[in-house]
Amino acid sequence: MKIIIINGPNLNLLGKREPEIYGSETFAEIFKSLQSKFPNVELSYFQSNIEGEIINKLHEVGFIYDGIILNAAAYTHTSVGSGDAVKGIETPVVEVHISNVHAREEFRHVSYIAPNAKGVILGFGIKSYELAIQSFL
Ligand code: DQA
What we know:
Layout: E1 2-7, H1 19-22, H2 27-37, E2 42-47, H3 51-61, E3 67-71, H4 80-88, E4 93-97, E5 119-122, H5 127-136
Bound molecules: 1,3,4-trihydroxy-5-OXO-cyclohexanecarboxylic acid.
């Protein structure tokens, strides 16, 4: 089973960025522990701060991989293009957020990804990624 985690803008700063919201682990550490928790899953990881690069990656993997875990971060709430990309590909996408976006500012309550996603997992901290992988198994 081939699953990719795609992280959007500012998630390269995990571990340093607002640790009271996003925790103190880097994504490299999180990814390592996911790999050891799911040894039978072929896991890969992509991060970009650039909207078009995320869309290109969705196109690249979206007809080949078995699952996509997408934390589009701030683009979740703004990017019609990312939502259209999720709609246009075949691989199922699970939308993930570390924080409970519904308990935060109103602009975070909107998602352009969710209507086209297989499901949404949010608010469980970095465990949200683990739950998303489990949802594909
Ligand atoms: C986030 C929530 C978004 O609103 C925010 O812009 C992020 C991270 C999360 O994982 O909780 O950058 O997607």
